Amino acid sequence: MLSRKASCDSHEQDSSYFLGWQEYEKNPYHEVQNPNGIIQMGLAENQLSFDLLESWLASNTDALGLKRNGRSVFRELALFQDYHGFPAFKNELVEFMAKLRGYKVAFDPNKLVLMAGSTSANEILMFCLAEPGEAFLLPTPYYPGFDRDLKWRTGVEIVPIHCSSSNDFRITACALEEAYQRAQKLNLKVKGVLVTNPSNPLGSTLNRDELNHLIDFAIKKEVHIISDEIYSGTVFDSPSFISITEAVMEKHVDHESDLLGRIHIVYSLSKDLGLPGFRVGMIYSNNETVVAAATKMSSFGLVSSQTQFLLSNMLSDKKFTSKYIKENQRRLKKRKDMLVSGLRSAGIGCAKSNAGLFCWVDMRYLLRSDTFEAEKELWKRILFEVGLNISPGSSCHCSEPGWFRVCFANMSQEILKVAIRRIEAFAESLSSASGRENLSHQRSARNSRRSLSKWVFPISSYNDHEPADR
Amino acid sequence: MELSKNPQLLSNIATNERHGENSPYFDGWKAYEENPYHPIKNKDGVIQMGLSENQICFDLIEEWIKKNPKASICTSEGVDEFKNIAIFQDYHGLPEFRQALASFMGRVRGGRVRFDPDRIVMSGGATGANELIMFCLADPGDAFLVPSPYYPAFDRDMGWRTGVQILPVDCDSSNGFLITKAALEAAYEKAIEDNNKIKGLLLANPSNPLGTLLDRETLTSLVSFVNEKNIHLVCDEIYSATVFKSPSFTSISEIIEEMGSEICNRDLIHIVYSLSKDMGLPGFRVGIVYSYNDAVVSCGRKMSSFGLVSSQTQHLLASMLLDEEFVGNFLEESSRRLAKRHEMFMKGLEQAGITCLKSNAGLFVWMDLRWLLKEQTEEAEIVLWRVIINEVKLNVSPGSSFHCTEPGWFRVCFANMDYHTVEVALKRLHAFARQEKLAISSTRYLRNHKLQLSFSFERYDKSCVHVRTLFHRTRCPLTPQYFLDISVPMVRAASRT
């Protein structure tokens, strides 16, 4: 009776990633009303810097009352549905994007297309670049929502590029080629590679080698590169962020290869500015046909004119944006250091990270066995016994069991401390409950802790006595 | 940027024409954009009458916003809510927003039916809503029946990325463009014969471009039809609050309440709605799918992730639409002003000797210019249309762009401009119609007397103007000034007898 899309479950919303959310919604933590509730650590949101946005609003009355120089622009906004977007807004966005990249690259507002969130942007790129049944390669682990965003209504397939902890989950030329061959064997035509840089869930930026491997691969196979750079403003530590555009420029790519016409960037204000409710996403492409097609497709999900107006005002305040970016990054680093330190004192390590709103946590040694079933068991225990909703690596298609994504920027500092205490207590209970029987397990756990230094980023600036963040 | 030599670099969808934006429908818009009318700066510019927008009641909304600063998250009164709203991306939508929409939709239907807020699914405007419902109900290659004439962008919205086919059910002026069950049955049978899989029927009620309503009897028979065939019924009711005189609007929701679930399978019924026309807020992108089918609501809700309404907008409109006093006043005043504008426009057309289909809703009229066609063909209609754009300087929409099978009809919008501009447009139409009538009667006279028309520039002194009619278009061009100052053309007639 309904379409196949409606009846199937390719939206993947039955995965654990979403089930954890549902459990949280049934029993959400509240410091007063429900102190034993579940703490949400599966939501990659940036809630650290709202005070900065609010104070900007307080001092900018024109944008408040939908006014420009005192004159009401309500009518103009109410009618504005041009899919080319607010010119002023696009100008500010390209400037903002350039700023985040240290002005090493410049962007042309005419190559920018706006749509409702990066969810929509990613789907639109699939509609533009691939037929149903064709494939994109994605390095694992990757954001669980891609299964819905890239595949569901488009019919495009995802073929994973397997990355492993043996080299910090970096993308290698070998892994790229292996994935390509696997796709061929499955009779899937590969149209491109999609990477998230900085990575979700790893929280690290791609290094020059990885970017060069991607570029070489895309030239050789004549495929597209989509670089989802929605976390580019959350880079809080070195090494600094290298955008795909910068990498291509530095490589002095031969124009014969037409590579530039196959590079597309996805961006959004949901993570960097912490405004997911406003649904501001965008595609940046050098390919005129893609820009033209994506612009028409954006009709299905334009950005509200009211929102475009507000944000173009906000982003035009350059002093504010510089201050915001710097302060936001400082707070993110501090928060991440706090989580890493807390995990370390519980004997748990994380992958090295310099960006994002989460840590990629190594709990392999806590697994009963080196299997995804054991990972799921552990995840459930952490959800129901410890009361933390974190995201199991399997939901991110990680090829190794035992890794979890844990978010730190979507809660107050106090709640994070509660979460850390619970983790410490849990780890404690595991080691005392293990007893004689699991002595060997503990030994290997100790070995793992010794090798933590390989993973944990040195904490130099975290200070217990600093005033609480929001 | 040069594309790769690889011809399959991009998808078919990205490179095909199914977005429909290269159709002549949009040429008129381009003419307007290149030369837009302005009462002071560009009096001879093109007046935009191809844009179905409601600009009549902004003052009421602006006043409400001024009086309710708390509704905006940007004011000092409302900024407390900023953080909660800015992070809210739940695809269920703000509960108060859904309640507000359900309440508003009920008010628009005179309180005769209640809507369940939990059945409201958000989307990026009605554009997004129409696409979303197709993704839920049909697979690529499946077909939907749509009575013609219909809104041109349905081809894009329903079919471009979904792969769904639209099969028009042709209606014509012989019965006032009414949809009959017989016509539907015939269209259905033919579609089946041609090996199409029909998944449903889509209706726009009130109709764009006709401005008419489907009556109770017709709606009931259409519901029976879809139940018999076990296909879906999607009712696009985005103009429901633009009904400005009787008969009053009957929503599909009322019909199915009356019919009861034994006769009507509610799982087949879906409504598309939006605030773009009724409230004149197309920029805010508020579209809705309201479905009586639980599986469609569930699936649609997940799909709405691809086009959620900005939380800032949800928050503002929730407050506004829950203000019952405001809503009551707005609906009444909006209806009154639309009626007045419609009446003024119709009177002007009548004086020009131009007739329209009788209508009581919408932001446009369906104008009958068949008498101006050289021949009853689509080509002749396009010729006429280009004259209206380029010489009369009005962007109107030709019936063929609405898939009307009867040439000579045009949709003309009247609510997207101020009073003065309507007057200017009417004057131009008046002048044009008069001139054409004159030319027609001159030609007939000359033909009857076996005379031949010829024009020669040198024969006129400068005070005369050259006539250019549809019958002799290849001769001399007319200046726009002509249409503002009427003078009798001087022609030289040579007897051929």
Topology:
The complex is a heterodimer of chains A (470) and B (497).
Chain A lengths: L3 H4 L8 H11 L12 E2 L9 H9 L2 H4 L2 E2 L2 E2 L1 H6 L7 H14 L11 E4 L1 H13 L5 E5 L6 H6 L5 E5 L11 H13 L4 E7 L11 H14 L2 E5 L15 H7 L12 E6 L12 E5 L2 H10 L7 H12 L1 H28 L3 E2 L7 E5 L9 H15 L1 E2 L1 E2 L10 E5 L5 H22 L4 H12 L20
Parallel strand pairs in A: 1-13, 5-6, 5-7, 7-8, 8-9
Antiparallel strand pairs in A: 2-3, 4-10, 9-10, 11-12, 12-15, 14-15
Chain B lengths: L11 H4 L9 H10 L12 E2 L9 H10 L14 H5 L8 H14 L11 E5 H13 L5 E6 L5 H6 L5 E6 L10 H13 L4 E7 L11 H14 L2 E5 L15 H12 L5 E6 L11 E6 L2 H10 L7 H12 L1 H28 L3 E2 L7 E5 L9 H13 L3 E2 L1 E2 L10 E5 L5 H30 L2 E4 L37 E4 L2
Parallel strand pairs in B: 1-11, 3-4, 3-5, 5-6, 6-7
Antiparallel strand pairs in B: 2-8, 7-8, 9-10, 10-13, 12-13, 14-15
Helix pairs in contact in B: 5-12, 6-11, 9-10, 13-15
Description of the molecule:
The complex is a heterodimer of chains A (470) and B (497). In chain A, a hairpin with a 2-residue loop joins strand 2 and strand 3 (71-72). Chain A is α/β, with parallel strands linked by helices and 470 residues long. Chain A is built from 17 helices and 15 strands. Chain A is globular. With 497 residues, chain B is an alpha/beta fold. In chain B, 39% of the residues lie in helices and 13% in strands. A seven-stranded mixed β-sheet of chain B has the order 2-8-7-6-5-3-4. In chain B, strands 9-10-13-12 form a four-stranded antiparallel β-sheet. A two-stranded parallel sheet of chain B has the order 1-11. The longest helix of chain B has 30 residues, at 419-448. The interface between A and B is large, with 74 and 76 residues.
